[in-house]
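hey can u run this one w/ zinc ion bound, need the C-alpha cells asap thx
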Amino acid sequence: MTQAEDPEVPERRPIVPGVASALSPLVRRIVANNPGPMTGPGTNTYLVGIDEIVVIDPGPDDPEHLDAIAGCGGDRIRWIACTHTHIDHFPGVAGLQERTGAEVLAFDSRDGLEIDRSLADGDVIEATEFVLRAVHTPGHASNHLCYLLEQERMLFSGDHIMDGSTVVIRPPDGDMAAYLAQLERLKAWRPRLRSIAPGHGYLIEQPIAKIDEYLDHRRDREQQVLTCVKSGTSKVPDIVAELYPDLLEELVPMAQGTVEAHLLKLKDEKRVKRNRKTWSAA
Ligand SMILES: [Zn+2]
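ok here u go:
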C-alpha cells in the first residue's frame, strides 16, 4: 500500500529545497537542491540543537544551500558532521566551515574531505542540550557513520537506510555482509530508536519495520542472485539484465555493483565461486 492509499497516514508535506522544516524539538531539516535517481528529492542536511548546533551532511557545494544552512544556524553552528564521503553528502563542508568556523567531524579524511577530528564507533559530540553518538556502519561505504540523538531516540542514518531510494552497495568499498550485519545491529537497538532521519527522503517513523523491510529485500535479492547463478547465468551484466529488466541506463553500474556485492558475500560463504568474470554454484 502506498502512502496515499493509507488513510491512517497523514499526507506528507512536499519536500521543498532550501526551506528549513522542524522535525522535532531539536531537529530541523534543509533539503539540498540536488534531486535525482540516486538522491531522491535531494540530500537531507540536518541541524541538531538550538543553542549549539551540529550540522549533519552539508551536502553538495551549493552556495544557496550553504547560505540557507548558515542562515538557519548562524554562529551557533559548532560542528559539521559527515555520514560518509560520497559526493552528494560532503562537498559543502569547506564552504560551510568558511561561513561558520565550525569543527569538522567524520570517520576519516578521504575523497577530498578534510576533517578536524575523527569519530570512531561510540564517540560522542557533547553539546549543552544533547549528546550525538557516532555509530560506525560500514556497508554502503566503509567509512559510513550514523548518528544517534539519544534525547530524541532519532537515528541519522545517512545512506545506510533511506526513504524512497535504494541503498547501493558497490565493492570494493561497499560490503554486503558488513551492511547486513549493521542493519541487524541497529534492529537490536529497538528500544533506543523512535525514528530514523535518512540522508534522502522523509523521516521514517517506524524504524524497525523499515529495517525489516531492508533485510527482507536483501535476502530476496541474494536468493535471486543465487538462483540465477545456479541456473547458469554466470556474468554480472547478464544477472543484472535478468533481475532488473526495466532499469534506467544510468543506474546499471549501481545494480552491477550491488549484484557483485551479493556474489562476494555468497563466495565468502562458499555458496558460489568465481572464475575471472564468471560465477558458478559452489
Ligand atoms: Zn547519498
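DSSP finds six helices and 14 strands in the chain. anyway lmk if its weird
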